[in-house]
Amino acid sequence: MTTIRQRRVGKGTEAAEDQPSEETNVGHFPDGKIPSDHTGGKLWNILSITVGGIVAISLGLVTSVYVATLHENDLWFSNIKEVEREISFRTECGLYYSYYKQMIQAASIQQGLHGLVYDNKTESVRTINILERMNVYQEVFLSILYRILPIQQYLEPVYFYIYTLFGLQAVYVIALYVTSWLLSGTWLSGLLAACWYITNRVDTTRVEFTIPLRENWALPFFAVQIAAITYLLRTHLHPVQERLTLMVVFIATFLFSLTWQFNQFMMLIQALVLFILDCLDMLPTAKVIWLYIIQISGLLLVCVLQFFNSMILGSLLISFNASVLIARTIQKNLKKGGLLNRLGKLIVHVLLVLCLTLLINKCIKKILHLESDEHIFKFLKAKFGFGATRDFDANLYLCEEAFGLLPLNTFSRLSDTLLFYIYVFVLFLMAVAAVIVAFRNLSGSNQVQFMEKMEECTITLKPDAAYSLGHTVLFGCLALSTMRMKYLWTSHMCVFASFGLCSTEVWKLLLKCVHLYSSQRAQVIKYSVPVITLVYISYKFWPGIMDELSELREFYDPDTVELMNWIKSNTPKTAVFAGSMQLLAGVKLCTGRTLTNHPHYEDKNLRERTKQIYQIYAKRPPEDVHGILRSFGTDYVILEDSICYERRHSRGCRLRDLLDVANGHIMDGVGDNDPDLKPSLYPRFCEEIKKNLPSYTMHFTRVFQNKTFHVYKLAKHK
């Protein structure tokens, strides 16, 4: 088991036509003010953009260096052996990095690509196309770049890889900074967003200890896309500006889709935001349609690069966006009429889009015989209470903390930096404004007199702010339901809270409603409150950050290191290994041996294979287990005490419990069992094999053992 320990002393150191009429253009003045003197205004504008840009780049670089330093201090990465570095890339991270290593070590780029397209080492007795199955084009691109650049003598491949990802953190922070700046009109907002991102690092990123994870590649591009959409939704853009912005949105969307297998689900939520706001007449329809098209085209381009991956073609995103475009063609007068008339049309429109989405998606999946993503829908069905399930794959997700509800202590951590309090304050004001604006938009001319009564508290909501509100609400719901997805929400939370705190419109609305509004007072509050917040954050968290950077630890996992070294020294290079998904990813990276299964779970055949391999932890007779393992060409099986005698999960969520229930057996230990479950006729395989009984030794011979792992060689019976 991998642990981190304190370092020992003595070692060396090392489009306007669709816009609501109440919008105003503040885009040309970053601080939201129009100077009286035109020349002076231009100079102030240039100076503000220059200073803001320098601050953005500086904060991005600081964040990059910060997470890189934390990574080095945590593992003493520069001092540990190569095998220890590779083991530190845990679970699926190790699998992805292994393809980068494979490309680097290939005799040529062409041979490396051929090895990925015709891979027979990731899944034994099968040849699969890695470029089709997994999102590893980033590893391919990076390995080619490393080979052609003259840096091999100065930089090891692993450092080129991790520094690239830490560098992407700079892009991430700059994109968040720019988004907040565009929304509020002042770069002070961007500064506050970046500071919140850094001080809430535990809840905004995990890049320093899960470097190759797909989301660490994808989220910076997603942030760039959101920044570009924010700019696109501004009023009075020149046609050239609009076309260039659409190009940036497309490139960012494409890169986001290319680097993460869950891209379709994230963009589906984004499409729902656009759909809801467009229905409420809060976004320009022409631009929304362009964004739908960009999402579809970006995903289809990725589909082509992934050799027409059927999971992409069968995604709900493509079905939903196509349905919206078809429904808009059918219902051309959607935004005309009075309140009741429009509400009726909207209900019909929503039902039409929903039915078309389900119909198109079902037809595509039936034509393509697509079942790759069925485990996700089984998981969602069970998670939200639509019936209990004994499905092994669904329960495997349900029992993982990362796929559970967002823990309450997250909010206490976010509150320490004042982020959560300010976020809720801004969210409440913006939500109230959105409800009023939506009602006004849907009411049309019939409700003018009603709205005139509210003239004293005139409320407007610009399209970019409306999109940001919708984005944070829907991704907030996703984060609350699934902890692993919180990083999509918390980073935007920093943007949204800082924008609200630095927004003239927000303070104007609040002051007008309490009859205290004046232009000067609004400007004073707009700048003073963020500055006070920044001072508070700096005073409270700077010492803690310095202590964190001074804390030195090192990687320590001798059992796994011993296992990997033994495999490399004592087994043939063609040997096939079976075991847990997480461990086998490390086996492939560290030893290059062939695997029976691995952590990339988006394939039905692999899921069925994994369930069969995991019978080593179930109550099955030795001859059955031997037959299953040999059917996948297994030469060696690795048993882990941490799984066989697991205590991390409670009863019912231990891997052995999931297998028992799936096999119809009662679970171990004190507790309730479903009435139809029965005792197994056989003991648990992973426990009984250690007794060296004749019925086991005729099939399995122990060849390696330490405190954590037991390796058995399989007899090859004819």
Automatic annotation (TrEMBL):
Q: Which CDD domains match?
A: Dpy19L3 (cd20181)
Record's subcellular location: Membrane
Q: Which Pfam families match?
A: Dpy19
| Membrane-spanning residues | 43-68, 181-199, 219-237, 244-277, 289-318, 339-360, 418-443
InterPro entries, A to Z: Dpy-19/Dpy-19-like, Dpy19L3
Q: Could you tell me which residues belong to the region Disordered?
A: 1-32
Q: Membrane topology type, per the record?
A: Multi-pass membrane protein
A single GO CC term, please? nuclear inner membrane
Q: Per the record's keyword annotation, is rRNA processing included, yes or no?
A: no
**Organism superkingdom:** Eukaryota
UniProt KW Zinc keyword: no
Gene Ontology MF terms: mannosyltransferase activity
Keyword field: Glycosyltransferase, Membrane, Transferase, Transmembrane, Transmembrane helix
Compositional bias ranges of the Basic residues kind: 1-10
What family does the Swiss-Prot or TrEMBL record give for this protein?
Belongs to the dpy-19 family.
What PANTHER family does the database record attribute to this sequence? C-MANNOSYLTRANSFERASE DPY19L3-RELATED, DPY-19-LIKE 1, LIKE (H. SAPIENS)
> In its UniProt entry, what is this protein called?
D19L3 mannosyltransferase
Q: Which organism is it from?
A: Formicarius rufipectus
- Gene name per UniProt: Dpy19l3
